[in-house]
Each structure stands twice: as C-alpha cells, then as structure tokens.
Write a structure and sequence with these properties.
Helices cover 13% and strands 34% of the residues. The chain is mainly β and 392 residues long. The protein has 2 domains: 15-282, Lipoprotein localisation LolA/LolB/LppX (outer membrane lipoprotein receptor (LolB), chain A); 302-391, no CATH class. The strands form 2 sheets. Strands 7-8-9-10-11-1-2-3-4-5-6-12 form a 12-stranded mixed β-sheet. A 7-stranded antiparallel β-sheet has the order 13-14-15-19-18-17-16, sandwiched between helices.
Amino acid sequence: MSYLRSKRARYAAPAAVLAAIGVGALVPTLSGASAPPALRAQTARQLVADLAGTQAPELSGGLTWTANLGLSDLSSLEPGAGEGGGSGNGFNPLTLLSGNYQLKLWLGAKAEHIALIEPSTQEVDVVRNQNQVWLWDSSTETVLHLVGPAKASTATTHANSSLTTLSAPPFTPMQLATELLSHVSANTSVTIGAPVYVAGQPAYQLLIGPKNAAGSTIRDIEVALGASGPLLGVPLQVAVYTKGVASPALSLGFTGQLHLGAPSASELTFTPPPGSKVTTHTISSTPTSSSANGGGWFAFAPLTGMTGPAGTGSGVTKSGTGWATVVSGPSGALFSTVESGPLSAVTTVVTVHGQQGRLFSTDLFNVLLMPDHFYAGFVKPSVLEAAASAST
C-alpha cells in the first residue's frame, strides 16, 4: 500500500485567462522531446477552453516530482539525527524541497490515492475519499485521519472537488495547473510552446509567464495538456522555471505509462494497519481555493493581479502588481524563533533601514523576516527589502 494524491473534476479557468492570452504566439520550449508529435495547430485560447471544459478521467500511473530551488543544506531542519524508516521521527515534508521523487497515483471518480515510492526508506500514503483523508506514515506507524465538512449535495461529488473541501495542497499536475490558472490575470502572458510527449502521450504546451515584471523570479510556467482522446485538455505535466536557470525549479508530471480506466477498489480505500496509532481531526469548515480575498494554496501567489495594498485577513496585506506581488503581515514571535532556532542555519542576516532581519532565499520564493513584519513572494530579495523599507 502506498499513496499520496489528489485531483479536480473540472478545470474552471476564469475569463481572465482568456483575456490575458491575446494572440497565441509560437515560442520554443525547454522541455520538448527530440521528436515532438505532429499535432493539429491550436491557439492558446483554444487550449485554455479545452482545459476549462475537461473532466479528468479515471486513471493510474507514475509521477515524478523534482525540486531544484537552489537551496543549500536543509539538514538543520531535520527532526532528528538519523535517517530512514527506523529513526522514528516520521516523514519530513521539507525533504520534498530538494531532489527527485517517484510517486504513484490512482485516480477514481470519487476517491484518490497517491503514494511516495522513491526514496523507499519509508512508506507515505494519502488516500482521499470524498470528504475524508487518510495519511499513513510507515516509519512511525501512525495514521492521520481528516474528516471534512459534508457537501450540500452529493450529486456531483468527485474526487477532484474533495480537495477544495479540505483545502489540500495540489498533488497532481491536474490540480496544480488548475490552481495556477485560476489566478491568471491581465499581468500574465499565455502562449503556446512546442508539442511534447508526456508518459508516451502527445501533448500541447501552454507557456504562462509574467508581463513586465522585472522583480519576479519566475520566467514561465509550462503546462503540458493531453492532445487526444480521454486526456484531451488534461494537464499531464507542470514545470516552473525561474529566470537565468535552465532546469525547472519545480516539476510535477506523469512518467512511464498511463493506464486509463477505474483503478482497483482496494487502491482507493484505506484500513489502518493493525497496531497503528490513528489520530482523527474533524474540520468543520474551510475556505475555498477561489475565495474573493485570494484563498487557497496560492493565496500569496503572484498571479492574483493585485494592483495595490489589500487586506487578506489576520493583518496580512498584499502590495505590488501581478507577478511582483508581495505578501506582508505581522511576524509575531516568528522572528525570534527563526533567529535562535534551527531555521537560522538556512537564513542570512540582512539590514533594512538600520534594522536587522533574516532572509530565507531560493531561486523561486523568498521570505524576509523583520522583527515586526514578514514579507514574502515569488520576487527577488531586493523587492522584499524595498517593501520593508516603504513600510518602515
């Protein structure tokens, strides 16, 4: 048994996506195959329309997750000294910030299951069935059971939509692409790249990038969409590229062979292993991923198209424009925790307006912690420092 997964039934790309496209230009891609498939000519507008009207089919297959954020040593953030399943420390999600990982996905009509396959030092599985999620960690023999709020209607219940119910992170190319495109604005360029093969399937490529955002770290985001049959318009791979770096900072895509059709029922259900410790949490309500104030896992994303400061709750505000958006808010006790804790090893000391702060820097995402406020975004550190100076 092995799982980790999630998805969405329909990819409701907003009208803003179409407005941002303009004329779809043919541009080169860095992830194309040596012999790209011969596909019928499409415009970016047509591809976005395909994605918006597509329901992901039931399927199973392998995924590869790659993180190359330019991070140095994260060992100081490990929960314990040892490595491997025998350490008893449990799975540390921070390990996913660097390296290559093999996953297996089983996608049903009302349930889903994703498993961490490699590295194989421990088994980490996530099974989602409508409003319930099970997370199994073999290294600690523990199960986290989440029960979300029941839906008002079950007529259209689909495994993809259950993600929104529990406000879960995007685990598949389909959901990741949906989250990104749901925030596309007029500050975004959407064009077409060269066709590619993904897991043996022909695919078009959408290239999503910033318009006139010198301060953004992102060069573009490449989304490979299935070109035929049940996979038409279904995102098969998503890769995020940063400026000045040839390889993607983040990449999630299908590999090997895709198997269409309903997975075995045994792969979409979960029974806690004998002797495991089960912890259950009931979630009474959660924000949706497309709330008016920019909720969801990309609430701080540069794609929201904010044109000026706007409240987002809990004292958090946004400034800047489009892909150069900066999120800021009270840092509370976080600054002193970082300054004296293990995070100090992965941050550097910076001085802004005579005050010392801590900078957590990657090729993609940066966070500036000052004694009173934090500043974060998919922007260069200099943009964060300018935002901190302006608010001092």
